[in-house]
Amino acid sequence: MTFKQMTVAVLACLALSACGGVDPSSPLGQRKAIFKQMLKTSEDLGGMLRGRVAFDGARFADGAVKLDALSHQPWQHFPQVREADHTSARDEVWQKQAQFQQLARDLEAATGELVTASQVQPYKAGRLQPAVQKVEDACSACHKQFRDH
């Protein structure tokens, strides 16, 4: 196989791998991007408390603020009717809107409490753990009921 043929084959494979992806500007693409940012941010915070990442109080506080801002965003990207694209959201998201929205508000409240807890100085990981646990519990409650794992 010549270099030119191999280059064409590689480019074709890359182009095909891009097909079938989620449109990043679609509601599904928007909320997936936000949820990925939320996961990364919460993993960083949890990692600091669990010793996987060096604890940095100021960085933790900044992460808490970021997570709180993100926690208010994905809900606007759930359309009134379930989209045709493959989604991890169960049908119950659309069938039980009041309950879904309440769990969203619970997460927003938990991240708000995390921001408050992260403003207390001196920064102490042990003082932040209950607030992080409350955020994790809020995420878990919604996932158990409304996410298709």
Task: Describe what you observe in this structure.
Keywords: Electron transport, Heme, Iron, Metal-binding, Signal, Transport. This is Cytochrome c556. GO terms for molecular function: electron transfer activity; heme binding; iron ion binding. One of its GO terms (biological process) is electron transport chain. It holds the Pfam family Cytochrom_C_2. This protein has about 150 residues and is an all-alpha fold. The protein has a domain at about 25-75 and about 95-145: Cytochrome c/b562 (Four Helix Bundle (Hemerythrin (Met), subunit A)), CATH 1.20.120. Helix content is about 70%, strand content about 0%. Helix 2 packs antiparallel against helix 3 and helix 2 runs antiparallel to helix 6 (about 125-145). It starts with a helix and ends with a helix.
